[in-house]
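Milestone 3.1: sequence recovery, worked example.
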């Protein structure tokens, strides 16, 4: 039996679920297809990673009417301290200097996922098909046909628009024959939580080293999320060593700004790469999230960029749905993509450029970046521009980022 939808979102992680929430008050009939149950302890989208949400993301979640629930488990970032190990350069940013309560917020991915899925379970126009996996995609001029594999059966769907949000290793992107450009940084991020001897005072730290960035993001109860980047060939070593040895390695890179670090949680690893899809729109399918662009976590920009894409696509669908009545219309999708390319390209260039300039102790590059960091720290207009870009409120952004509702 064929079930018809206006939109099928393939991928129920944070990006796909956020889009479903954004469209949950419309008259669009939506299916959210996810291969792994959100209640499973092996759900990779909703694990124990700490996410740094920018001001743009806060505004989007406010518009989606879920921020009050997200904020309950989030810790504000009131200050940011960026440094270069072994060099003099540093940049210090303070929310109060811009009249803001916070530059961003840190939330555990699992807790954010709980909020999003709770919202969707109380929504009338979104069917959650989970666990289910898309096994085939067939494009036609007026719709897309999908075959799903469920635990005990198969199911056939038809939709006007397919949103591909199944991650960097997207199988659907491959079925659509969309090529990608991949840069392997030969780095792996090891993520865990620690408790510090000295209170973090809602400060996020990012310290650049020749092996990659080390970030400490503030959590409640004086804990911090640690993102410890190492060469990939050394990752297994750092995952297997005992806690005391691991903490000492973090301490060597980070220093004693927060006193002694203790109480390390379980460790998880994530490979660092840049992936850019050659096309984000193919017929009635649009790529969203990591399936469209996966970037290095420098500056914690990846998920925030994806969420601004969610806001942009939702606005185009809501604004145009009443006119064209076709969410997969070619012109609608091209208009969405054109509205987002500048932001996407700016963030990916910045993230990639930082890997070239900050993980290299060649004398000229080290001197150049440290002079640049010092100038930014001392020149208020330059720092203001950097802060606005980091918060995702620079340039032309979706209306949800500017406080407008759908």
């Amino acid at each position: 039996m064929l079930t018809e939808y206006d939109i099928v979102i393939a991928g129920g992680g944070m990006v796909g679920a956020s889009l479903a929430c954004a469209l949950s008050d419309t008259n669009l009939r939506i299916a959210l297809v996810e291969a792994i149950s959100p209640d499973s302890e092996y759900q990779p989208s909703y694990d124990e990673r700490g996410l740094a949400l920018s001001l743009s993301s806060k505004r989007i979640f406010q518009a989606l009417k879920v921020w009050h629930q997200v904020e309950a488990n989030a810790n504000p970032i009131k200050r940011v301290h960026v440094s270069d190990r072994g060099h003099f350069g540093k940049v210090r940013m303070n929310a109060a200097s811009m009249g803001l309560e916070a530059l961003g917020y840190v939330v555990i991915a699992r807790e954010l996922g709980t909020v999003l899925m709770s919202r969707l379970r109380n929504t009338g126009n979104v069917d959650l098909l989970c666990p289910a996996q898309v096994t085939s995609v067939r494009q036609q001029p007026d719709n897309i046909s999908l075959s799903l594999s469920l635990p005990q059966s198969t199911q056939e769907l038809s939709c006007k628009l397919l949103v591909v949000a199944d991650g960097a290793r997207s199988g659907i992107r491959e079925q659509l024959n969309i090529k990608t450009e991949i840069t392997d940084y030969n780095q792996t991020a090891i993520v865990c939580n620690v408790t510090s001897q000295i209170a973090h005072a809602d400060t996020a730290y990012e310290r650049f080293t020749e092996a990659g960035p080390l970030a400490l993001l503030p959590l409640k109860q004086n804990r911090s999320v640690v993102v410890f980047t190492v060469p990939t060939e050394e990752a297994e070593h750092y995952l297997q060593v005992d806690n005391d040895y691991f903490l000492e390695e973090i301490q060597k890179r980070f220093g004693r700004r927060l006193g002694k670090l203790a109480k390390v949680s379980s460790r998880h690893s994530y490979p660092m790469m840049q992936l850019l899809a050659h096309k984000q729109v193919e017929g009635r399918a649009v790529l969203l999230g990591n399936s469209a662009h996966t970037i290095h976590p420098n500056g914690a920009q990846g998920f925030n960029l994806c969420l601004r894409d969610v806001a942009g696509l939702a606005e185009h669908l809501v604004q145009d749905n009443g006119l064209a009545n076709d969410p997969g219309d070619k012109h609608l999708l091209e208009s969405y993509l054109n509205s987002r390319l500048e932001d996407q390209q700016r963030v990916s260039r910045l993230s990639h450029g930082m890997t070239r300039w900050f993980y290299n102790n060649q004398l000229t590059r080290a001197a150049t970046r440290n002079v640049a960091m010092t100038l930014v720290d001392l020149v208020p207009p330059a720092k203001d521009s950097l802060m606005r870009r980091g918060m995702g409120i620079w340039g032309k952004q979706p209306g949800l980022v500017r406080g407008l509702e759908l």
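The longest strand covers residues 180-196. The two ends are 34 Å apart (CA to CA).
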